[in-house]
Design brief:
It is a single chain. 52% of the residues lie in helices and 18% in strands. By secondary structure, the protein is of the alpha+beta class. It has 3 domains: 115 residues, 2-Layer Sandwich (Beta-Lactamase), CATH 3.30.450; 82 residues, Orthogonal Bundle (Helix Hairpins), CATH 1.10.287; 151 residues, 2-Layer Sandwich (Heat Shock Protein 90). A 5-stranded antiparallel beta sheet has the order 2-1-5-4-3, sandwiched between helices. A 5-stranded mixed beta sheet has the order 7-9-10-12-11. It has a two-stranded antiparallel ribbon with strand order 6-8. Strand 4 and strand 5 form a beta hairpin. The protein starts with a helix and ends with a strand.
């Protein structure tokens, strides 16, 4: 069964639509044959029985409420039935004859009495069948399993009901209706159905084929275009249409192709930038090493320190690249514990201020007081440091940086504002991406690796926090992030 389902799942959509529509049409034809041919006689008998019982109830109401008896004639005519109303002793008190061969009006007084007696013994109602090949027997019920209704023989049905009013017995109503043979009708319907079946089958095959092709065509077109997208052709334009869902899918694929193209461009720029950052310290290390080897007197502590500094820079870049990949993949768990966020940030600001003081940079730190948080101190400090370095790299000529730490509503928020030119509006959603660099000329950072904002994004997300950037009115760009205190 599972193998059959797997094979069916591999069938193209146009053939599936064809199979579904064809099956639907075949099911309708089968239902039509069952209702019009196989079960026609049973439907006909049940309909006549229902008409007979409804007419009897109406006549009973007329007699009990002493209404005009002429209405009984109308009911008998509408139902095509003969009616006899008899007293409790079997005497006829009202009679309507609408059928030529009425069985009811051929019965003797004793037959009518036998019917009323059988009706009373049967709980107040009695149904019986009469045909020319089957003499009338009042005790022959239509529900008798031994009785087979004869389709080709004219038959009559006799129905008797006891009339009571507030528990008082008033008499009996006896109706007689004719059950016409349905063989001729079935034969005529079969002839029509054979013609209809052939026409519907041809029509179903043609329509199913057309609809399946119409439905499958735009999907097949999209499938072919997606194949070119998978090969790296991000300039592919999807133009399939025809249905609302297809149009929506086309727009989504075009947007996906555009975004993948941007990511591919950013990836190439990122590789170029990282290659530049890796090559620069390697070149310096190699240059100073050759200088110390080949030139007498250059093998000194100053040149060795240059090599050590560039080695640290290279190690820092590689470490940040590894951290970024590991954090974004979830391979590095956040080791959370309670600590004083204010003291941690003050220490970072003080250390960086001392490092950059000789270059004229000034970092202003403001806080509302001690803020205690439960977080990964190493990673949060790394995020704060990366944002600070980003501000150092992009601040204005006054080299001023403003840091603000506050708490409220169960969150601790830090913002770092520079005095530079800010961030372009169309770049704000991309500055956190690992491949994005707003400085297309790739100006080398004063310190750091240039991929710190991507690490900030991953760490803050791991802490269920928020982050963002906006341009201030007169102080350049403000980068911020917030994390839950507990």
């Amino acid at each position: 069964m599972k193998n059959l389902k797997n094979k069916f799942d591999t069938i193209p959509i146009k053939w599936k639509v064809f199979i579904y529509l064809s099956t639907f049409c075949f099911s309708l034809l089968i239902l039509l044959w069952l209702l019009q041919v196989v079960f026609l006689d049973r439907i006909y008998i049940n309909t006549r029985i229902r008409q007979m019982t409804q007419a009897t109830d109406k006549i009973e109401n007329i007699i009990v409420t002493a209404q005009n008896n002429s209405r009984i004639d109308d009911i008998a005519g509408e139902t095509e039935a003969c009616v006899i109303a008899v007293s409790t002793n079997g005497r006829t008190v009202y009679s309507v004859e609408t059928l030529k061969d009425c069985v009811l009006h051929k019965l003797s007084y004793f037959d009518i009495v036998n019917i009323t007696v059988a009706t009373k013994e049967n709980g107040g109602q009695l149904q019986a069948i009469y045909s020319r090949t089957n003499p009338f027997h009042p005790d022959m019920l239509i529900t008798d399993p031994d009785y087979k209704w004869q389709k080709n023989v004219p038959q009559s049905m006799v129905y008797c009901k006891q009339i009571t009013d507030n528990g008082k017995q008033l008499g009996y109503i006896i109706l007689n209706i004719r059950l016409s043979p349905v063989t001729a009708t079935v034969t005529a319907i079969e002839s029509c159905l054979k013609f209809i079946t052939v026409v519907m089958l041809l029509f179903a095959i043609i329509v199913a084929n057309i609809i399946s092709r119409k439905v499958a065509q735009p999907i097949e077109q999209l499938s072919g275009q997606v194949g070119s997208l998978a090969t790296g052709d991000y300039e592919t334009v999807f133009d399939a249409s025809g249905y609302g869902e297809i149009n929506q899918l086309t727009r989504a694929l075009n947007h996906t192709a555009a975004e993948l193209g941007k990511v591919e461009t950013l990836r190439r720029e990122f590789i170029a930038n990282v290659s530049h950052d890796l090559r620069t310290p390697l070149t310096l290390i190699g240059g100073y090493a050759e200088l110390m080897r080949d030139i007498p007197g250059e093998n000194n502590a100053e040149n060795a320190q240059y090599i050590i500094d560039e080695t640290k820079r290279l190690s820092s870049l590689v470490t940040d690249l590894l951290d970024m990949s590991r954090i974004q993949s979830g391979a590095v768990p956040m080791e959370k514990h309670q600590y004083n966020l204010t003291e941690s940030f003050e220490k970072t600001v003080t250390n960086l201020q001392q490092l950059l003081k000789q270059d004229g940079y000034t970092i202003h730190f403001e806080t509302t007081g001690n803020v205690m948080v439960v977080a990964d101190q190493v990673r949060i400090s790394q995020c704060f440091y990366n944002i600070l370095i980003n501000a150092v790299n992009h601040t204005g000529e006054d080299k001023q940086i403003f840091v603000n730490l506050s708490s409220g509503e169960g969150k601790a928020k830090v913002s770092v504002t520079d005095t530079g030119s800010g961030v372009e509006e169309n770049e704000m959603q991309y500055v956190w991406q690992r491949y994005y660099k707003s400085d297309k000329n790739h100006k080398r950072s004063v310190t750091g690796t240039g991929i710190g904002l991507s690490i900030v994004q991953s760490v803050i997300r791991a802490h269920n926090g928020n982050y963002g950037v906006y341009n201030t009115k007169d102080k350049g760009a403000c980068f911020w992030f917030e994390i839950p205190i507990e």
